[in-house]
Structures are given as structure tokens and as C-alpha cells.
Design goal:
about 65% helix; about 0% strand; 3 domains; mainly alpha; about 160 residues; 8 helices
Length: about 160
């Protein structure tokens, strides 16, 4: 996508595509032109939070499955052990993430907290929602206070204690 934002790359892509369609060579296709000009997409890797033990269990489980159909009991046992290990790894990862976000909140690093929440919540954009009372009127003093906090980029100590 980054290459398509570059106007010179888009122009080069259009020229190559036009030339290939004019030549009408059936063995070349759109994908070949795209790969020539734009290159391949880099794979985005997820942060790995599985332990080495879990990865070893995966390889053992795979080896038992490929070895013989009589190893169904062993495969079932390894599968249960792997699932338990994966749950423990996921819990450790979530605990570490929560600890990191709490540390950022203690140090009034609100940007890091929000980025962590947004990265791991699956939502790409945060929608701003005003606080309203029962009659759907925006609460004025709270709005002014939140604007002041936003501009100062520091969370008040009372808020960190859960007091508003």
C-alpha cells in the first residue's frame, strides 16, 4: 500500500500495465506487472507470546500425528497438555501487558496507555464520545476539565486513584 501512495510508483505501474496490455501477451498477467513494479508485501508478524515449551509440544504433537494412526491416545494427551500450556502462556502475556499499561498509567504516560489499549483491543480508531447527562446535554464542567487534562498531557493524581 505504501508504494501506491507514491505518485511516481503509481505512474510507473500504469505505464507498465498499459504496455503489457498493448502487447497482449497472454502468459503475462496483472500479478506479474504488480510484482515487478511494487514488489512483494512484507509479512506482518504478530508478537509471539507462546513459550518454547509450547512450541516444543506442537512439534511433538505433529510428529506423533504423522508417525502412525495408532498414536491417537498419545496425540490426545499431547494436545491436552499443549492447550493447557497455551492457556498459561496467554495468561502470562496478558498479565505482563496489564502490568506494563499500569506502569505507564502510574507515570502519567496516557499516550502509551491508549496506544496499548488500541493495539490490543482490535479497534483501529478511537471515537471520541462526549459525556452527557440524562437529557443528552454535554456536561460542561467535566468537558472543560477533560480538555485541560488533554492539553496538559498529564493525568491528575486523584484520577489515578480512581477518584473523579
Amino acid at each position: 500500500m505504501e508504494n501506491l501512495r507514491n505518485s511516481s510508483k503509481v505512474e510507473e505501474y500504469n505505464v507498465v500495465l498499459t504496455n503489457r496490455f498493448l502487447a497482449l501477451q497472454p502468459e503475462e498477467d496483472l500479478n506479474a506487472a504488480s510484482l515487478d513494479v511494487l514488489g512483494t508485501l512484507p509479512w506482518q508478524t504478530k508478537q509471539q507470546h507462546s513459550s518454547q515449551d509450547s512450541r516444543d509440544l506442537i512439534t511433538k504433537r505433529y510428529a506423533v500425528k504423522r508417525k502412525s494412526p495408532e498414536g491417537a491416545a498419545e496425540y490426545s494427551r499431547l494436545n491436552k497438555v499443549f492447550k493447557k500450556s497455551a492457556r498459561v502462556d496467554d495468561q502470562k502475556w496478558a498479565d505482563n501487558l496489564a502490568r506494563d499499561l499500569e506502569d505507564a498509567a502510574k507515570h502519567s504516560n496516557q499516550r502509551e496507555v491508549w496506544q496499548g489499549i488500541m493495539n490490543h483491543s482490535g479497534r483501529k480508531k478511537c471515537r471520541a464520545v462526549a459525556v452527557r447527562d440524562g437529557a443528552q446535554n454535554i456536561i460542561g464542567p467535566l468537558l472543560k476539565l477533560s480538555e485541560q487534562v488533554w492539553e496538559s498531557k498529564r493525568v491528575p493524581e486523584d484520577w489515578l486513584k480512581g477518584e473523579l
